[in-house]
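Following up on my earlier thread - several people asked me to post the actual chain instead of describing it. Fair enough. Here it is, all 121 residues.
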Amino acid sequence: MLVIAFHEFGHAFMARCTGGKVESISLDPREGGVTHMRGGISALTLPAGYLGSSLIGALLIFCGFDIVASKVASIVLGVCFLLTLWWARRDWLTIVTVLLAVALLVACWFIKHAEPLRYVV
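Reply from S.P.:
Thanks for posting it. Predicted structure:
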């Protein structure tokens, strides 16, 4: 769900940057997501979902090289994970997976000065 949200927010961000209007973003744990928008430059907004989620992934990889950056990234990821529960309140598999991921992030904070966060983030 989190990767789908990053993908759809990439479309929405580029639509806003090119003068478009985002009408809605829908996320479904079983089917993926869709961003409804008007206007904007479609040649830029269409690939922005893949580019946006790829750039966020690259940023998380770079955060893995530093413990402090990993701590900041884990807080941001934890909040994003918990926000995905709002979209998936009826899907038990997503709820359990998100709660386990947040529990893993929290547990890593207490192991060897949070060094495992570098590998989890």
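Residues 23 and 117 are 37 Å apart (CA to CA). That should answer part of your original question.
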